[in-house]
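Protein 1 of 2
SEQ + STRUCT:
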Amino acid sequence: MEQFSPKYFDYITMADFVRWLEERNAVESAPKPSSQDFFILANANNTFLDQNDSCLAHLTDPSGRPPIYTEIVDPENVARRKRNVTEHMLEVLGSRYNKFGEAISLGGGSDTDDTEVVNVFYDRRFPFIDNEDSLVPIAYSSKWHNIADTLANQLYPFIAVHWRMERLDPLSNLVPCAVSLVRAIDEIVQDQARNPYYPQIPNIFLLTDYPHLLDQGDTTESQSFKKSEIFQQHHDAIHYLYTHYPLHLTTFESPSTPPIPHDKLPANWTVIPVSHYPDVPDDASTLGIVDKLVAMNANWFIAGEAQVCGKRSSFTTRIIDEREQIYQQDESDKDIETSTQIMNVVDYFSIVGDEDMMLDDGE
């Protein structure tokens, strides 16, 4: 944050903010800091933000300040946006009317806004601040980089494969996509076998929202990918993949999680425990950061073609952007073979034809 302040805004850290709240609450004769919640939704029908309780709610007082809900639609295509999203958000935060045109209460209903804490819960999928500096990704913590570097060093040389299966439609695409993915890996493996410098067969690191522990409760690796959305076609596609190549995936291992059932997993399905830092949250989003950083430095990167074998996402885009930068930096050294060299930015796997499917089934 230091790179932006005080050029653009003033801020305090979360630790300092919590400390201030606790100090205010420690004075029994003083009221809690007044607060008001704003929910800025991409779709008014989505209620998942409202289902999450604020961990600081007990330290503030929202009396007389009901939550404010508003909808701001901001499609990815900037040309389709009806108005400036930044201006819209600022207007919402200072408005006395909600999206239904109903009067709302700011500052406890008084003419002077005396609200001390404004909690903004927003569901935004795309950038909304009109400033080039805001488009620069905030660097991940060195903790994540250290974990990812350790994993990558264990895997080199390796192929990173990102296969997001959530809501992939139609389901009949899944197995043909798996066939295509195996063939894409075949090409890399065959080329590598002819490499006089590093003929070692590369490992395969799989980034997927499919359950990393396979049938152990069918818990997906995405908060939005529900257990009820996993069908036999998902299982068949993954089965096809690991029966053709050994795969490596990650999972968190901590005192609060069950042991990894290595003895119940297929021989070609290696789950790597991530447990280097006790204070690292053991949730899917954190693990996704580690996986993303590993993929950024893979020798090869393969992803499912959008709308056919995968979904277009900021996750994949962030990996590709970082790999593009590294690839361009290494362009002058392409004649020097190294075990950590990035060989491509990204290749996509799609669906093979019926004839190819028949040939593959006969192998």
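Protein 2 of 2
SEQ + STRUCT:
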Amino acid sequence: MRFRTLCLMFCSLPALFSCRQVTAADAVPGVIFTPEQSAQLRLNDAEVSVEQLQGEARTVVNALGTASPWPGVRLEGMWTIGNDEELLVDLENLEDVAMSLTCRLDRMVDGKNKMIFFQQHFAPKERRQWKIYAKPRLKPEIRAKLFGMRYFPGNILEADADILADGLKDIGFIRFYLTNISRPMRFALYRVAKQPQTELSQLRKDVNEAASGKNWREMTAEEFFPMIDKYGQFKHEDWPGKVHSDDDLRAAIPIEDAELAAMPRPPTWNQYGGWATGPQQEATGHFYPKKINGKWWLVDPEGRLFWSHGPTCVRIFEARTPISDREHLYEWLPERDGKFAFAYGKGKGAPFAYYKDKEYVTMCF
């Protein structure tokens, strides 16, 4: 492909920009941003350029990640995205690796800035139209009985739950950024617009109805609770792979065995995940730290170097959660003195929120 890059480069100092704000009235009604408006972007640890590719313009954002953990760009204006509208973002990952992009909408509520986050995963070189719409507010009688949760049903962040009642109103900033990247990464914006919700977006909001045929968002509290089935899943939606019976769990065993067989651990790992073919250290039968060539390592019980990147501290009792005052959430909990009695526990001293300074019963799922 042949690219023609326009002579339009911007550094990330906001003081360089004195242009008017981006508004939906610039060009076509409903259009919030096009590459022709790139000079009006506010930059955070990023550079932008405008390119022409096969007659189509795009704004290339080079997120540097050297001065901020959230490098990207910001649109400024004033928009309202109603409950029957969606924000359509035509965006492309220009990297050879996957990236997770965040769209943050800032709005003023009672004189305070409220931030609403949406995140999307893009495969290498993937271009896609990202559709963002207001998530419907939970009924107050249901909202009042949900606490101690990071997210509510409907993928609603708890912090957002009380500010989405009337759609996405009075949006002053629309931000697109990456998080904690270790090297510069590029993505392209082709267009940002708001439009009536498409049939697909509406379907994604209204599909997954309860067995009774009633959308769970319209349920009363008596119909909605309990909302978690005996397998720890949300009751009122369905999806591929959801467990409906013990037979489903049994059927999953050979599938999982086949997946594990197809993806064996690297042959250079030993039973502890240590570097089996690496330099031999003293084997003590235990993990221990050792400084080698100026860098600290863990040495595994067999004396091999061990380094972990990713999930850590995974053990059988990591899934504890308080159930005190939340028993109404669960369709089934084991008998306190039955064969699963060992799964119950006690906790205290939560640092914040509902369980702060309280003692509570826990369940390990």
